[in-house]
Design the sequence.
């Protein structure tokens, strides 16, 4: 029961306190306008390069837009505590680490899902991408999978944030890696030979592929393999994140570097 | 004459100090160099698929200049807010030197970082993607770059004073980055943009600076585009100057300058 309270109530409270992008003056430009402009930019590039349809770019960029709230939300969970001088108190508390950080991940996932769906809907509307209403529920499920998957990677970054102080650099760099490698704007088959090998180990790659298939008419069951693969990778990232978290926590305690900013 | 020398010294010192500040911040270095390269890489990957060399050169030139706008949009929007958080905004406003003479060289330093990003992106295009950009008129090309940087610095100055009351202006700056790349024709020609967007492109100085760079690279005359770019830069500077006076007077009167 205590762990459930930490997960749900603690997670929600910490997210409201630490993810200051929830302020509408930040949320709208950064998490609504920016992804929509990104979709437009790449869709026009695609038209100019005569590469793929507008739908291809709407799907790639809308799904990838989940990475912004995920990467920044999870790294804020550490960086925000550190800058508020509460990281030491948090880690000294008897609260189980897994419950603490999984709780922080749930609002991140919900936010990423909403951001991604808004980008999807507005991008499709602006570019007149015709997606039958019957496909939207499956797309919403896949976008949720993408948000969960990206949050898994973000937990690894959050854990690394215990050691690396410049979390903004970390989050921005990973955003770029996902943009370039996950087949967001270029089909995986058209990337240089070594790049798809990297893509295979990144979240979002399979979600984007599955969403494109569903948008083209495939059923959710048809892309089940891709979804399972994505969730398996997510589990791996979550496990890795928790291991890194434990290691850096112990190391920061030993070296008294936890709150060094 | 003494006043002119003092003003020139102020501009030079502020520009140099701002560059030094950029040099010690890993985040600034990332924003100025790696961030535009991420988008340049995406663009090169898109344009190389069909192997059209003309398109690659078009995108290469646009990608090289995009860092200048990136530097401006985010950093200039947040310029006064950073001073506010550092507690130095009141000192700058109260100092005998005109605020405009402090802000303009800071914006110029940001544009200078954009120039560095341009060089890095051109090298990245050349060595990672094999995109070499032939430049037929070197002097016209260099003048176009300098004019673009100066005009963007003035645009950054205007942006920084325009958002003095917007406490989270960095978010606005972030959101302006992609529209700027679209409006300026960095990756796509204006011809394929919707008609209602074009007037916005025409009053956006980088559109003309970039057109000048492309013309010079292709061996056509870039001077008309450069002249329009300069005129727009001067207009941004004058509007920024007038706006800074008005907004600062208002902020002083309402005691809102340092509110975070």
Sequence:
């Amino acid at each position: 029961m205590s762990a459930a309270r930490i997960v749900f109530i603690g997670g929600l409270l910490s997210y409201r306190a630490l993810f200051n992008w929830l302020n509408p003056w930040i949320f709208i430009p950064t998490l609504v306008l920016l992804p929509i402009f990104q979709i437009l930019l790449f869709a026009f590039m695609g038209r100019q390069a005569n590469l793929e349809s507008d739908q291809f770019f709407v799907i790639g960029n809308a799904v990838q837009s989940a990475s912004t709230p995920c990467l920044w939300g999870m790294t804020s969970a550490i960086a925000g505590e550190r800058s508020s001088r509460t990281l030491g108190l948090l880690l000294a508390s008897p609260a189980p680490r897994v419950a603490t950080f999984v709780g922080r991940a749930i609002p991140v996932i919900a936010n990423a899902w909403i951001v991604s769906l808004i980008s999807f809907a507005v991008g499709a509307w602006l570019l007149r991408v015709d997606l039958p209403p019957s496909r939207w529920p499956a797309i919403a499920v896949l976008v949720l999978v993408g948000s969960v998957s990206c949050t898994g990677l973000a937990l690894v970054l959050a854990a690394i944030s215990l050691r690396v102080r410049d979390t903004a650099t970390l989050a921005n760099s990973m955003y770029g890696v996902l943009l370039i490698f996950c087949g967001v704007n270029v089909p995986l088959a058209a990337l240089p030979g070594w790049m798809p090998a990297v893509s295979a180990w990144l979240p979002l790659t399979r979600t984007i592929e599955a969403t494109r298939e569903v948008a083209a008419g495939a059923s959710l069951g048809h892309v089940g393999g891709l979804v399972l693969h994505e969730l398996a990778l997510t589990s791996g990232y979550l496990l890795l994140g928790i291991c890194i978290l434990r290691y850096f926590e112990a190391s920061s305690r030993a070296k008294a570097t936890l709150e060094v900013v | 004459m003494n006043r002119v020398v003092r003003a020139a010294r102020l501009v030079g010192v502020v520009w140099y100090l701002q560059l030094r500040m950029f040099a010690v911040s890993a985040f600034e270095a990332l924003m100025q160099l790696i961030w535009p390269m991420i988008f340049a890489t995406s663009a090169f990957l898109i344009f190389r698929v069909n192997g059209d060399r003309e398109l690659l050169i078009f995108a290469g030139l646009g990608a090289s200049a995009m860092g200048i706008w990136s530097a401006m949009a985010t950093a200039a929007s947040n310029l006064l807010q950073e001073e506010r958080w550092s507690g130095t905004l009141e000192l700058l406003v109260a100092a005998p030197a005109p605020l405009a003479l402090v802000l303009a060289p800071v914006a110029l330093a940001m544009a200078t970082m954009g120039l560095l990003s341009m060089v890095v992106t051109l090298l990245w295009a050349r060595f990672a993607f094999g995109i070499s950009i032939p430049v037929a008129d070197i002097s016209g090309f260099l003048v176009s770059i300098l004019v673009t940087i100066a005009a963007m610095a003035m645009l950054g100055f205007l942006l920084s004073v325009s958002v003095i009351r917007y406490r989270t202006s960095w978010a606005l700056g972030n959101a302006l980055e992609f529209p700027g790349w679209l409006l300026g024709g960095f990756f796509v020609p204006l011809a394929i943009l919707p008609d209602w967007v074009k007037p916005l492109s025409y009053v956006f100085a980088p559109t003309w600076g970039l057109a000048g760079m492309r013309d010079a690279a292709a061996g056509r005359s870039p001077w008309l585009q450069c002249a329009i770019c300069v005129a727009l830069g001067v207009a941004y500077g004058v509007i920024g100057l007038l706006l800074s006076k008005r907004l600062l007077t208002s902020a002083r009167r309402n005691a809102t300058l340092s509110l975070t």
The mean pLDDT of chain B is 86.
